[in-house]
Design a protein that fits this description.
Order of helices and strands: EHEEHHHHHHHH
Radius of gyration: 16 Å
CATH topology of one domain: Helicase, Ruva Protein, domain 3
CATH architecture of one domain: Orthogonal Bundle
Number of strands: 3
Largest sheet: 3 strands, mixed
Strand content: 5-15%
Structural class: mainly alpha
Shape: globular
Number of helices: 9
Length: 168
């Protein structure tokens, strides 16, 4: 089954053929697929799930409530109230989204895909693994970001975790 945002669902209308951009989430208990009509929407989804405490369900809810450009605007302007209107996003989560993504998004134009959506997914998975191993989330985030800065674009998650563990 492929899950899509409400915006993508509405845009599909009566189309017979479409090209969807897919993001796969592999967990111990499930393999989930998320589909997006635009690359910008998928990139925003990937950015959102890179934020600690924001999972795929919250990211889909955000993209069902607002278009990627509206989310970008709310994040760059620090509009906590706009983000709180999203189901499942409270004040703390909204602030965390703004803090984690403001610099990344504001330094780019509307094409979010250029700021490393692949690395954001790998980063989120590495941070989740290190957190599960009991490391301090802030210290782990700092180390993972340092490793990513030194690595090439196609770093594997296993390598990212190993290099991060060496620095922790």
């Amino acid at each position: 089954m492929l899950q899509v945002s409400l915006n993508t669902f509405e845009a599909l209308g009566g189309l017979k053929e479409v090209k969807l951009y897919v993001h796969e989430v592999i967990r111990e208990d499930a393999h989930l697929l998320y589909g997006f009509l635009q690359q910008e929407e998928r990139a925003m989804f990937r950015s959102l799930i890179s934020v600690s405490g924001i999972g795929p369900a919250s990211a889909i809810a955000a993209l069902s409530t607002m278009k990627p450009a509206e989310l970008q605007d709310a994040i760059t302007k620090g509009n906590v109230g706009a983000l709180q209107k999203i189901k499942g996003i409270g004040a703390k989560s909204a602030q965390r989204i703004i803090v984690d993504l403001k610099d990344k998004i504001s330094s780019q134009d509307a094409n979010f895909d250029i700021f490393g959506a692949q690395n954001n997914t790998v980063r989120a998975e590495a941070l989740r693994a290190l957190r599960n191993l009991g490391f301090d989330p802030r210290k782990a985030q700092k180390v993972v970001d340092e490793v990513l800065d030194k690595s090439d674009e196609s770093v594997k998650i296993e390598d990212l975790i190993k290099q991060s563990l060496r620095s922790l």
